[in-house]
Amino acid sequence: MARRAIAILAVAAASVTAAAAPLPQLVQKDGRHALMVDGAPFVMLGAQAHNSSNYPAALKKVWPAIRDMHANTLEIPVAWEQIEPVEGKFDFSYVDTLVAEARKNKVRLVLLWFATWKNTNPQYSPEWVKFDNQRFPRMLDKDGKVNYCMSPFGEETLKADKKAFVALMAHIKKIDEAHRTVIMMQVQNEVGTYGLVRDYGAKAQAAFAQAVPQAVLERQKSPVKLAAKGTWSEVYGDYAEQYFHTYAIASYIGEVARAGRAVYNLPMYVNNALRDPLEPMAPWKGNFASGGPTWDVIDIYKVAAPAIDLAAPDIYMPQSAKFTGTLDRFQRPDNALMVPELGNAATYARYTYQVLGRGALGFAPFGIDYADYSNFPLGSKLTDKTMVEPFGSIFAVFRPMERQWAKWAFEGRTYGVAESDERSEQTIAMKNWTATVSFRQWQFGEKAWNPEIKDEPANTDKPGGGVAIAQIGDNEFIVVGQQVRLRLGGAGSNDGKPTMLARVEEGSFDPSGTWIMERNWNGDQVDYGINLPAKPVVLKIRIGTY
Predict the structure, then answer these.
(1) d(Cα 511, Cα 506) in Å, to the nearest integer?
(2) Any signal peptide, and if so, which residues (predicted)?
(3) What single string gives the DSSP state of each residue in 226-263?
(4) Which of 254, 398, 425, 520 has the highest count of CB atoms within 10 angstroms of its CB?
């Protein structure tokens, strides 16, 4: 009897200890953001599986890729059609398997709710929803023709979607509250409408004729000076239909998210199929998904969906100017930066340094599993380990210091750049120091010394370099990168002073966060700048003035 009592007490104590980990949450300080997991900042070194890898049997092709990726987080769908194939009857067997296997693989989960909208259409909703236009109406065009997209004014659709999402959140709480394997939820996927700016059904028409809500007026300013208040057309002119559709979809998503968080309060976000970040502001011309959380309407989402923590860009624009422009548009004091999807082609790997250096919550290439499917030309032609390697080699050096990096980022100590398509030199401004980053340099000497040599360093035929820097002290830095030449110079209080490297240690962090030096670079290794090799490396640098 005594042994049984002791065993019961031990189990109870273990349960209390496990449940003591606080819920994941998004926190903000001085315009910076952190995803808190187990009570401390966490950076998602993520990977998103293919859309159709969301079944128990398919997971066997997911986990090997996640291991090769050295990812700490898997983003993967949960489809409405798979958990509620028959109305009112829920099946969470896939979720149970997924969560159990994630724990076994020591990976956190971000679950993607594919429901009313997935890439704007209802293909992941149950059959009893998508083929009943009377109960679950689709949008109508100006001529009354049925559109492919579900109407955001479908009251029964919202009711059913919300019911299923609440059931999912309740189940996650039931199986995972003591473990915190699931750390975030994405609500719907790349919403909006292609080819039609908004719904013209009767309910939508009536709503469009109403006055713009005051909260929207206060946040979303019109690009053209029109009426200060009034109907959508009176206030926003040619932008009115896109803005109205955005408000309708965001309100729908906000209702689903609010109901889910009332059950289990995990952080939630929306992702976005982009409009061109460099294109001059103009009314919708059919060139992006109207109603989605594009950079120009983030404020409408903030008003209409306060239960959503952030709008995040899915970046399938490999051009460096567009990639950087997108980050600039989405990283705001009121909107944390996170890149939940980007192409898995090797050219995107360099952006890991830029995104993590900017203090992002996470970074997750798409299509990271070994299913025999390629989304080329948006991503890689490859479907095996060679597809994963360019990202995995970078994640591998970040993983041992992932918690330290997240903390430094939240403190505003991190910076990062990726090699541009023009291969031009870049400068990073830090506290009392600057870092000058150049590319396609030999590790020894200066190119100008040997103008007759025309060949270039190996593996630099395409842009692939990048560096992320954490300033961990006044004169001390952690540098992570590859294929760059780095030079530190004085600025601020150090401007004009002669400087000299004190130590450039190559090494890594152990699981306890202790720095382990492998060797100290000196002589040839630093005489011509700090030259990071093709394989990602971690350096601890001290510099001083004299």
Answers:
(1) 17
(2) 1-20
(3) --SSSBHHHHHGGGHHHHHHHHHHHHHHHHHHHHHHHH
(4) 398
Determine the Cα–Cα distance for residues 537 and 534; give it in Å rounded to an integer.
9
206, 310, 388, 367: CA torsion to nearest 10: -20
Tokens describing residue 402:
């992932």
CA distance 85 to 22: 33
- Which tens digits make up the pLDDT trace of 423-479? 999 999 999 999 999 999 999 999 889 999 989 999 899 999 999 999 999 999 999
pLDDT tens, 342-392?
999 999 999 999 999 999 999 999 999 999 999 999 999 999 999 999 999
pTM for this structure? 0.95
H or E element: which one contains 427? Answer: strand 426-429
Residues 6+ apart with CB under 8 A from 116: 80, 122, 125, 150, 157, 158, 161, 188, 252
Bond preceding residue 377 cis, omega within 30 of 0: yes
Provide the CB-side half-sphere exposure for 157 (13 A, CA). Answer: 27
* 281: its two tokens: 């502001």
Buried b (16+ CB within 10 A) or exposed e, 138-149: bbbeeeeeebeb
- What torsion do the CA atoms of 235, 214, 308, 140 make, to the nearest 10 degrees? -50
Q: Distance between CA atoms of 277 and 286, rounded to whole angstroms?
A: 15
SS3 529: strand
Asked if residues 435 and 428 have their Cβ atoms less than 8 Å apart, the reply is yes
What whole-number distance in Å separates Cα of residue 301 and Cα of residue 517? 47
Q: Rg of the chain's alpha carbons, rounded to an integer?
A: 25
Residue 323's closest CA among 363, 382, 283?
363
How is 128-192 classified by DSSP, letter by letter? HHHT-TTTSPEEE-TTSPEEEEEPTT-HHHHHHHHHHHHHHHHHHHHHHTTT--EEEEEEEES-S
Q: Give yes or no for residue 3 having a pLDDT over 80.
A: no
Is pLDDT of 15 > 60?
A: no
pLDDT classification of 1: cutoffs 50, 70, 90:
very low
